[in-house]
UniProtKB/TrEMBL annotation:
EC top class, as a word: transferase
Domain Phosphate acetyl/butaryl transferase residue range list: 17-331
EC number, as in UniProt: 2.3.1.8
The protein's name in its UniProt record: Phosphate acetyltransferase
NCBIfam families: PRK09653.1, pta
SUPFAM superfamilies, A to Z: Isocitrate/Isopropylmalate dehydrogenase-like
UniProtKB keywords: Acyltransferase, Transferase
């Protein structure tokens, strides 16, 4: 069986001479601090914890950590020397929306905006939030401050799914979109799949085999919802003829080799898919949670794709280990950005 490496393991196996800086916008949350300390100890990244200095330092002390100038620092947006620089930059960025200087000063003193400005202005290579903040706040701030990648049609999300360590079989997969786009059009679905293919290469280090999921396989049923998936599949093939993609396809045909051979004979994707593209957020969110809770898979995400620089969301029910894994994901994404892929 092929060894499957999660993001932390993958990052450890591919060390880099540079040490990226990851800004954590919820620096006084005990889970975030514990996850940050684990990341620093594993030499995954240097960390900036953002929040009121006294609160962050108290949490650090409570979990047995401390500020280390070279690898772990605390930024308090209320007193940071960078806040004036950020306010000027934020005003220039958002003045077309009617924001004034006073509003810009106020905005950059909020942890989410301050963290995103660290990335935008080159003081950090990526940011992670969402242990306390909502997904909508995290995503909106990232889009407004960091912006979309020049080649991105939209911002979407996915989960990395890893089989149980003791499983005799299984494979790492990417489930998309399970956290952000509620009811994508065919065009949007194709864009999500194209972005997910690159995310598969970056984070799973595997060539994507993309299944465009539905309740039908290769015409076994007829419905407008199926038409959306087949239209998206055709659009993806036209835009990216180099990709291995097939659909419409039921999950069992995409995942189980014997079922794939029966339902979609001759398909290069059926039974082998490692990128599962769900037709809407209902299916995606339910699907990843079923895989996690009943199948015992580890779920890391939601990971954001389509941004100019990495910014990622945490579940509000996250653990310290989840934080460490998301830091590793953000570092891996930043390496792809640095490479210009």
């Amino acid at each position: 069986m092929t060894t499957i490496l999660n993001p932390v393991e993958l990052l450890k196996a591919t060390p880099s001479d540079s040490r990226p800086v990851i800004a954590l916008s919820e620096g006084s949350d005990p889970r975030v601090v514990a996850g940050a300390l684990a990341a620093v100890e594993a030499e995954l990244a240097n960390i900036i914890l953002i929040g009121p200095t006294a609160e962050v330092e108290a949490t650090l002390e409570a979990v047995g950590g401390r500020v280390v100038a070279s690898s772990l620092s605390v930024h308090d947006p209320e007193i940071s020397e960078l806040s004036d620089e950020f306010a000027t930059a934020f005003y220039e960025l958002r003045k077309h929306k009617g924001i004034d200087q006073a509003a810009a000063q106020k905005a950059v003193r909020t942890p989410l905006v301050y963290a995103a400005m660290l990335v935008r202005c080159g003081h950090a290579t990526g940011t992670v939030g969402g242990a306390v903040a909502t997904t909508s706040d995290v995503v909106r701030t990232a889009i407004q401050v960091i912006g979309m990648a020049p080649d991105a049609a939209m911002v979407s999300s996915f989960f990395l799914m890893y089989p149980p360590k003791n499983a005799e079989s299984g494979r790492a997969m990417l489930y998309s979109d399970c956290g952000l786009v509620i009811d994508p059009s065919a065009t949007e679905l194709a864009a999500i799949a194209g972005a997910s293919a690159q995310s598969c290469r970056t984070l799973l280090r595997s060539e994507p085999k993309i299944a465009m999921l539905s309740f039908s396989t290769m015409g076994s049923a007829s419905h407008a919802a199926i038409d959306k998936v087949t239209t998206a599949t055709a659009a993806l093939r036209a835009a990216h003829p180099e990709l291995s993609v097939d659909g419409e396809m039921q999950f069992d045909a995409a995942f189980v080799p014997s079922v794939g051979e029966s339902k979609a004979p001759g398909s290069q994707v059926a039974g082998q898919a490692n990128v599962m593209i769900f037709p809407n957020l209902d299916a995606g969110n339910i699907g990843y949670k079923l895989t996690q809770r009943l199948g015992g898979y580890a779920a890391i995400g939601p990971v954001l794709q389509g941004l100019a620089q990495p910014a990622n969301d945490l579940s509000r029910g996250c653990s310290a280990e989840d934080v460490t894994q998301m830091i590793a994901v953000t570092v891996l994404q930043s390496q792809r950005t640095d490479d210009g892929d």
